[in-house]
TrEMBL record:
<feature type="short sequence motif" description="Q motif">
    <location>
        <begin position="1"/>
        <end position="27"/>
    </location>
</feature>
<keyword id="KW-0547">Nucleotide-binding</keyword>
<feature type="domain" description="DEAD-box RNA helicase Q">
    <location>
        <begin position="1"/>
        <end position="27"/>
    </location>
</feature>
<keyword id="KW-0067">ATP-binding</keyword>
<dbReference type="GO" id="GO:0003724">
    <property type="term" value="F:RNA helicase activity"/>
</dbReference>
<dbReference type="InterPro" id="IPR014014">
    <property type="entry name" value="RNA_helicase_DEAD_Q_motif"/>
</dbReference>
<dbReference type="GO" id="GO:0005524">
    <property type="term" value="F:ATP binding"/>
</dbReference>
<protein>
    <recommendedName>
        <fullName>DEAD-box RNA helicase Q domain-containing protein</fullName>
    </recommendedName>
</protein>
């Protein structure tokens, strides 16, 4: 998640929820969603 333009608070929340890496689908679509 660190390589995307996501707020530190969101990254902290994702980490706290146990998410450590993107799924294949998330990796393929996240940059498009953030535009």
């Amino acid at each position: 998640f660190d390589e995307y333009d996501i707020s530190p608070l969101t990254i902290k929340a994702l980490s706290s929820a146990g998410y450590t890496q993107l799924t294949v689908v998330q990796e393929a679509t996240l940059s498009i969603c953030l535009e």
